Amino acid sequence: MIYDLLIVGGGINGCAIARDAAGRGLAVRLVEQGDLAQGTSSASTKLIHGGLRYLELYEFRLVHEALAERELLLAAAPHIIWPLKFVLPYEKGLRPVWMLRLGLFLYDHLARRKRLEASHMVTLAGDPLGAPLRDVYRVAFTYADCWVDDARLVVLNARDAAERGATISVGAQLVHAERRDDRWRASLADGETIEARALINAAGPWVSQVMEDALRIHSRKHVRLVKGSHLVLRKLFDGPQAYILQNPDGRIVFAIPYDRDFTLVGTTDVSHDAPPGAVVISDAETDYLLNSLNHFLRKPATRDDIASSYAGLRPLYDDGALAASVVTRDYAFDLDAPEDAAPSLSIFGGKITTARRLAEHALGELARFFPGVGEGWTADAVFPGGDMPDGFDRFLDDLKRDKPFLGDQLSLRLARAYGARVFEILNDARANGDLGRDFGCGLTEAEIAYLREKEWARTADDILWRRSKLGLHMSDAQQQALLAYVGA
C-alpha cells in the first residue's frame, strides 16, 4: 500500500494531524518509536489555556488563537477537559495592579468566551480562596482556564484517526527515509518498508535529528530544547481552585489540584543542551519549586510531601531568545518540496492547546500536493467519548444509576477517562466480578483489554502513567501484579 501521509511522531502534533488528515480522506500512517505521548505530551502542566504570561511577550496572535481553541476543546472533550479557576495573589513590588488588570482584561476579550467566567478582583481575608495563603496576601485576581488530561487527549486524537482509517503504529522507529521520485520510501527498525506521497516530521524533541539523520534534509530552522519539571505533592489545600504564583525572577509557578489526592506544582524552564532523551527533575529545580510555593503558602511544603515528579523536554522553535523562559511557544514549519519530488513538512514547537489548529495549518501547507482533499472539519467535531449532549454531570449521574456497583469514586474515574466510551468496557456488567480481576483502584481485566485493543497500551507504564494516573494510587505490590499480568 502507498500512503498519502507518513507521520513520524505520536505526540499531540502528530496525532492531531493524523486525525485531521484521515477525516479529510487521506490514507495515513503514523509511526511512533515509543508509546503515544511518551515524551513531551505527557509532561505538560495539564492545561488548556491561552497563556496569560505570553501577553508580556506581546504574543497576542498566539494568545488569541489559544483562547479560541480553549472554547472548542472544552466542548469537544468534556470528559477530559473542564474549567479551572485560577487565583493570582497580588505580590507587592512585582507586576503592579494596573498591569494585572490590563492583562486580565485582554485575556477576557482577545477571543470570544462562552463557557468560562470573566476575571475578578477578590479580597482574600475571610474568603476560602485565601485560606491556603499567608496573611500578607490581601487581594488576588481570579480568572478561568481549563484542565486537561494531556496524555489521554493524545490517545483520543489517535483513536479518532484510526476510526477514520489511519494506521497507528507504536514501538515503530523510523531509521531512514529517502525520496524515490514522487514518493518517500521509509525504513523502520523492525525491517518494514513504508511508501508515502508526503512525510510529516512531528518528532518533537527529535525533529532536527530526524531531519538530519533520517531524511538527510538540512534546515536553517532549529529546535531549542527546554526542560520543564513538575512536582506532585500530597494535597496541600482544599477546594477546586488552582494558584498562579509570581516569582521575583519574573516566572510563574502553578499549584493545581491533581488527581483527587495531590497538588501539581510546576513548571521550570531550564535549557537542555544535550541530545533529546529521558530527563528527570534536578535538586535545584526541586528547591526552586518548593521555595516558590512556600513563599505564598501558610503551611510550608517539604520534600517529605513529594509523592512523585516528572520532567519533559519542550521542543520550542528557536527564535534567538537568550532566556529559556521567553522563547516563543508558537510553532513554525519547514516545508521541503523540490520540484517533482515528494514533499516533507517538519514541525518546530507548538502547544497542546493549539495542536488542532496546527494540524489544520499543516494540512493547508500540503493541500496543493493532494488535489481534491477534503476541507477542515475538526472545529465542530467531538473527540471519542465526548458525545454528552446533556453535559458531563448528567452523564455521570446516569452512569451511577445504570452501574451502581461501581460506586462514586470509580464511576467518576471511568467517566473522566472514557466518557461515553466507558460502556465499551462495562458492556452488560452487573457486578464488579463481571469485569474480571481487579488489580487495584478498580483497574480490571476488562479495562486493561480495552486499553490494549483500542488505545495501543503495551506495558504497565503505559497503563499506569499515561492512559491513567493510577501509578500514584496503587501500591508497589499491585503495580508488580499488573506488570506480571501485562508482561512488560
Molecular structure report:
With 488 residues, this protein is an alpha+beta fold. It is 30% helix and 24% strand. It contains 13 helices and 18 strands. The strands form two sheets. Strands 3, 4, 5, 6, 11, 12, 13, 14, 15 and 16 form a ten-stranded mixed beta sheet that branches. Strands 1, 2, 7, 8, 9, 10, 17 and 18 form an eight-stranded mixed beta sheet that branches. Strand 8 (174-180) and strand 9 (183-188) form a beta hairpin. The relative contact order is 0.16.
Features:
single chain, 488 residues, alpha+beta, 10-stranded mixed β-sheet, 18 strands, globular
Query: Distance between termini?
Result: 31 Å
Strand content: 15-25%
Number of strand elements = 18
Helix content: 25-40%
Q: Which runs of at least 5 residues are low in confidence (pLDDT < 50)? A: 322-327
Task: Give average pLDDT, whole number.
Answer: 94
Provide the structure class: alpha+beta
Largest sheet: 10 strands, mixed
Per DSSP, the total helix count is 13
Molecular shape: globular
Radius of gyration: 23 Å
Q: Short description, anyone?
A:
30% of the residues lie in helices and 24% in strands. It has 13 helices and 18 strands.
